[in-house]
Specification:
153 residues, alpha+beta, five-stranded mixed β-sheet, 5 helices, globular
């Protein structure tokens, strides 16, 4: 039985085992390569996507959880006002180093700003705590989120 959901604003149906993680459905079945595999245990945040606007770890969430839900990936963020503001701030603050974690970082930051228009440093730290950047650009990440928030105000 196909799993039906809305992906980046478009009705989507996939015929995969319902226990298949969203990550592998996106990458292997649908060909969307922006969402990254990091640890496979929901501990690094590289695989972060939005399910009904909430940041989730796609490496451990089965595609069945997306049935009749709204799923959004990094590929759709440039078309979203908040996502675009975050991406633009990322560039202005030269956040990315190696870039591997950035899709997950941007997805978490976008979810934060959709729920909190003026986050404090503590709010940002709490929202981003599950996203690891091995290059250590945390100070730039925080600055970019504050910048995006100001842009959206």
């Amino acid at each position: 039985m196909p799993v039906k959901f809305t992906l980046n604003g478009k009705p989507t149906s996939v015929d995969v085992d319902p226990s298949t993680p969203i990550l592998w459905t996106l990458r292997d079945t649908l060909g969307l390569q922006g969402t990254k595999f990091g640890c496979g245990m929901a501990m690094c945040g590289a695989c972060t996507v939005h399910l009904n606007g909430q940041a989730i770890r796609s490496c451990i969430t089965p595609i069945s959880a997306a049935e009749r839900q709204k799923l959004s990936t990094i590929e759709a963020q440039a078309g979203d006002k908040v996502g675009k503001a975050v991406e633009d701030a990322w560039v202005r603050h030269d956040v990315a180093q190696c870039g591997y974690c950035q899709s997950g970082q941007i997805m978490s930051a976008t979810a934060l700003l959709k729920g909190n228009k003026a986050p404090s440093d503590a709010d940002i730290d709490a929202a981003m705590a599950g996203n690891i950047c091995r290059c250590g650009t945390y100070v730039r990440i925080r600055a970019a989120i504050h910048d995006a928030a100001k842009t959206l105000a």
